[in-house]
Write a structure and sequence with these properties.
Layout lengths: L3 E6 L6 H13 L2 E7 L10 H11 L6 E6 L3 H8 L3 E5 L3 H17 L4 E5 L10 H9 L10 H10 L3
Parallel strand pairs: 1-2, 1-4, 2-3, 4-5
Helix pairs in contact: 2-6
Length: about 160
C-alpha cells in the first residue's frame, strides 16, 4: 500500500472545510502533501506563493503534512512525488458530478493512481472559497469560515 497521498487544490483561500479534509486525510495516511495548484482556469485573488504560505500556516500543527506548489497535470506531479492516492473533497451532491468526471479522467491518464473522496464535517459542507471571498470583499466577518491566518490575509488584501 502506498503510504503517501496528495490533496490538491487552488485553496484561494483555504477554508475550514479544506482544513477538515486535510485533517481527515492526515489521520489515514502517514504522509500527506497539500499541493497548491498554479494554473487553475480561475482568476485567483492570491498569488500561488501567498496561497502556499496561508496553507502552511493553517496546517502547521500537523507533523505529517507538507505543503508544496505544482504546475501542470496533477497525476504527473503525483507520480513524480511517488504518490498513489489523490484526495478530493466533496461538500455536496453538486460537487460529485465534476469530481467524478475528474477522477475518471485521472484514472484514464494514470490507472496506477487512485482517487479517494472525503467529506468535511457537515458544519463546513456549505463553504466555498468563492463565497468566502465574496463575504470578505463586502466587509463581512469570515473568521468562522477560514483559519486565522487566512482571515488575516483576507482582511489585509481587501482593505476597504
Amino acid at each position: 500500500m502506498n503510504k503517501k497521498a496528495i490533496y490538491a487544490g487552488t485553496f484561494d483561500p483555504m477554508t475550514l472545510g479544506h482544513l477538515d479534509v486535510v485533517e481527515r486525510a492526515a489521520h489515514i495516511f502517514p504522509k500527506l502533501i497539500v499541493a497548491v495548484a498554479a494554473v487553475t482556469g480561475k482568476g485567483t485573488l492570491f498569488s500561488q506563493k501567498q496561497r502556499v504560505e496561508m496553507v502552511k500556516k493553517s496546517v502547521a500543527g500537523l507533523s505529517n503534512v507538507t505543503v508544496t506548489s505544482f504546475d501542470g497535470l496533477l497525476v504527473e506531479y503525483a507520480r513524480a512525488q511517488g504518490v498513489g492516492v489523490l484526495i478530493r473533497g466533496l461538500r455536496a451532491f453538486s460537487d460529485f458530478e465534476y469530481e467524478f468526471q475528474m477522477a475518471l479522467t485521472n484514472r484514464r491518464l494514470a490507472p496506477d493512481i487512485e482517487t479517494l473522496f472525503l467529506m468535511p464535517k457537515q458544519d463546513y459542507s456549505f463553504l466555498s472559497s468563492t463565497n468566502v471571498k465574496q463575504v470578505a470583499s463586502l466587509g463581512g466577518d469570515v473568521s468562522e469560515f477560514v483559519p486565522k491566518a487566512v482571515a488575516a490575509a483576507l482582511t489585509k488584501k481587501l482593505k476597504r
